[in-house]
Write a structure and sequence with these properties.
single chain, 386 residues, alpha+beta, Helix Hairpins, HSP40/DNAj peptide-binding domain, 3 domains, four-stranded mixed β-sheet, three-stranded mixed β-sheet, 25% strand, elongated, binds zinc ion
Length: 386
């Protein structure tokens, strides 16, 4: 905003009437009009300053505030009061006060020249949106990594018109109604107002012969098939980004990306805890007592030999280093933890029953004798199933 007093800029007294202000502005606007002063920066500045002053002083409410707060005070308040402030540019000036000097330059909105920003006629390229999809894989597939086929809907660039929207061999036209501005100016009372052009919907161009495949939209809905590689060790709910597989850009703009959220289904036998893989193995009482060699099958089908130590307790954790999940960042595998469980039969043959009874008589029923700590003792009363 100008530092100079608005009354001084227009060359009128503080008590000037509305008509005097309008006449003064009109005179200055004519004098410094860009059509008359091509490439003259000083004239342009004066033209802008006059418009700024007129914008305030022609509005009785703004003028009242300007008189009340003074030039500096008004500048601080005007930014909140709907004033144009320092942003007022040529477009604003012509849109708001074009009628003041319009008659001299052919009238109305026709003087779109004089350094005004004109929109390049034709569609604006825009980046396509990103697409987000979800897939679900098994815990095993997240352990091993997997190639997953996906199919999803997205907007693809129209092949027929190569994303231009026009029938091959034709072009877009600058809208004749708004001359490419996207807006129509009309007068109401004293001011000029701008309204979105209804012919081109504010686009500034029309497509006389739209591409028949995409109706001039440059893209069309397509089903896309893709095989994605899910990396080994992918964590549940991780999101994979596949560049340039989202929506095609509008009118040749860049393509968006595809984001794939990977859900991992729980497994009945294996559990994941960070990079650690956990499973439980069921052993008989003698197997735990004597210790033994067993073979288990890991989640990926690999056979692993495990040694159960002599006197192994239930809930013991046997660690197999490097057989857990691969850490995506460090590429180091976590551990597999095999947790021992004791299989307690619900039914026994008569022979087994007799053997167990004889065994029980041999070892007795007092568990406190072994000297294990960390347990409360249960005073034995009687067997139930013998
Ligand atoms: Zn097309
Ligand atoms: Zn138009």
């Amino acid at each position: 905003m100008s530092k100079q007093d608005f009354y001084e800029i227009l060359g009128v007294s503080k008590s000037a009437s509305e008509q005097e202000i309008k006449t003064a502005y009109r005179k200055l606007a004519m004098k410094y009009h860009p059509d008359r002063n091509p490439n003259d920066k000083t004239a342009e500045d004066k033209f802008k300053a006059a418009a700024q002053a007129y914008e305030t002083l022609s509005d009785s409410e703004k003028r009242r505030k300007y008189d009340q707060f003074g030039h500096d005070g008004y500048q601080q308040t005007s930014s909140h009061g709907g004033g144009h402030g320092p942003q007022m540019d040529m477009d604003d000036i012509f849109a708001n006060f074009g009628d003041i000097f319009g008659s001299m330059f052919g009238g109305g909105a026709s003087h779109a020249s004089a350094g005004r920003k004109t929109r390049t006629a034709g569609p604006q390229a825009q980046r396509g949106h990103d697409r987000h999809i979800e897939i679900s894989i098994s815990l095993k597939d997240s352990y091993t990594g997997v190639k997953h086929d996906i199919s999803y809907g997205h907007l693809a660039a129209c092949i027929t018109c190569q994303g231009k929207g026009t029938k091959p061999g034709t072009t877009t036209n600058t809208c004749t109604k708004c001359k490419g501005m996207g807006q129509i100016q009309f007068q109401q009372g004293f001011f000029m107002y701008a309204q979105t052009c209804s012919t081109c919907n504010g686009q500034g161009y029309t497509i006389p012969s739209p591409c028949s495949d995409c109706n001039g939209r440059s893209r069309s809905q397509k089903q896309q098939k893709l095989t994605v590689s899910i990396p080994q060790g992918i964590t549940p709910d991780a999101e994979l980004r596949v560049p340039n597989k989202g929506d095609a850009g509008l009118y040749g703009g860049p393509t968006g990306d595809l984001y794939i959220r990977v859900l991992v289904q729980p497994d009945p036998n294996f559990k994941r805890l960070g990079d650690r893989l956990e499973c439980r193995v069921l052993l008989t009482y003698p197997q735990l007592v004597f210790g033994c060699q067993i073979e288990i099958t890991n989640i990926d089908g690999e056979k692993l030999a495990i040694k159960i130590p002599k006197g192994c307790q239930p809930s013991e954790q046997i660690l197999l280093p490097g057989k857990g999940f691969k850490n995506l960042a460090s590429k180091v595998n976590g551990n597999l933890i095999v947790i021992t469980q004791c299989h307690v039969p619900k039914k026994l043959s008569e022979t087994a029953k007799e053997s167990l009874k004889a065994y029980s008589e041999e070892i007795g029923t007092d568990t406190t004798k072994a000297g294990d700590t960390g347990f409360i003792s249960g005073l034995f009363k009687k067997f139930l199933g013998l």
